[in-house]
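Office hours follow-up: a student asked to see two folded examples consecutively, so here they are.
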Amino acid sequence: MYLSDLLYPKTIIHEQRELSKKQVYEELIAQICKHYKLTIDRELLLEKVLERDELSNTAYPTGIAIPHIRIENFEDTVIGMTFLQNPLDYEGTEVHWVCLIITDQSSSNLYLNLVAALLKLSQDAQMLSSFMTSDGVGVVQKIKQQQISLKKEITVSDIMVTDVITIRPEALLKELGDLLCSSRLSYIPVTDDSGHYLGEVNILHLLKVGVPDYLMMLDDISFLRSYEPLERLFEQENILTVGDIMQNSKMYLKPDASIPEVAFEMINNHKRFYSVVDDTSILVGIITAMDVFRKVIKA
């Protein structure tokens, strides 16, 4: 089965108006119900898709949002698309393409394969641009020409964060501390000026600077009430660099790693964050346990 087999030109909308997310969903649901002759209450469908959006963000870094509804005993899978001249804001992600999927509760594999196929399309900026200027028939024809099979599984590259905050090994610890605080991150990849992955540094690496080695050898330090041991961190933050405390980790993932592989590595190594590195050692993204949970498991 190909992605184009599930598309219907009359449920593909090109929207010039500036609409809210709710209005976009209402329009998609109306078109889907009309052209697939669905008798399901439209208000109920809208309520379900909005509830799903409240649960977790359905937008991806490539500018596509894939909200969906699962209905018991639906026994079908239907898709509606809206291409937006005025993009929607999904928690900071600018979305020009909304794909609404209605499917049966038992169709998890098909749904995930659909997401993978749509994400693959959304990564082609030139293709998306051509969709924006085509009618529904033209969009279906262009997707049909791509012959995108629904057998592909979702990989790390489909759900990873690509807008990554990084730090150089020569940065002082004060700069690292400021960056961790301002970005509200607990983990930052370390790269050189060319973007090559060198390792990682996290909040525990930084805090460890303020804990003397002799304290790490004790079984219990509950007797300490003074803040004094941690003052070493303040003394060293303008002396030590990220390179002095970073972990030269070889533990990273490839963009084509499968989601089961990601889950296995995270659980086995007690890591909630992984850098994603390509074959040339360039950092291309970050994937977190929450990405897997929200974008795959809860999807």
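And the second, which I mentioned at the end of office hours:
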Amino acid sequence: MIPKEILNSIRRIEIRSGKLVNEIFAGQYSSVFKGRGMEFSEVREYLPGDDIRSIDWNVTARYGKPFVKKFVEERELTVMLLVDASGSQGFGTRSKFKSELAAEIASVLAFSAIKNNDRVGMIIFTDRIEKVIRPKKGRNHILRLIREILYFKPEGKSTDIEVALEYLNELWRRKSVVFLLSDFKGRNFERAVKITSRKHDLIAVRISDPAERELPPAGLLSLEDAESGRRMLADTSDPEFKKAYLLERDNFEKNIKNLFTRSRVDQIAVSTDKPYVMPLIQFFRRREKKMAF
């Protein structure tokens, strides 16, 4: 049985997401994520001004007068949520854990998708594929996705983004919109990102916590890596240790941003200590500007 606090969290996320989708994101989503292309609908008689390239010569020959093919946009898309469930997602020093933030963002994206008649599926991963939920529509389906992110107990602890992306590429050959929600603590996934960005519309949602960006001056601290279990004693007041930590952090940030930029992958950076609404709005605005050119 699902704990009451989890059910309350799902309900809270549903209410908040529904409000945001109705007031802000549904229209932006629809304008940014178009259908797969133009789909044949019917033929009709030629009218002056019609493009002669659209003439259906078989029907024209049959009836002795010109007919043109009519096309409509094929609206329906498949949206895939790739959700990192590794040990580091259970970290959070402010109002919520990173896994809770991932659930909220996934909810907004999923409800926006189904409001536009798109299908949504999900792959939960750690250092292995933990759970696969096939793309479907409907409110109950989206609530199940939220429940899995919040309640699912993974077997793995570490992160292997390459495994998740390779599995996606093998399973879904048709181009999809893919949101990858992770803190990107894994290694050696550069090639997989580049391949996936060519096959799908890949968007990276990078989730962080302020304590990961800057250590508090708390003196001696016993630190444990949530994914490897490795422990270390660190003097967070030591200027040399702090300098080395900040340098490593800055290099990580720089490398991740450069990878996504080179791979033409859009990025959404969110943090547990800040509202996620503005980063999502900024993402949709950037996409709209890109489509205008």
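Two things to take away from it. The CA atoms of residues 195 and 247 lie 29 Å apart. The two ends are 51 Å apart (CA to CA).
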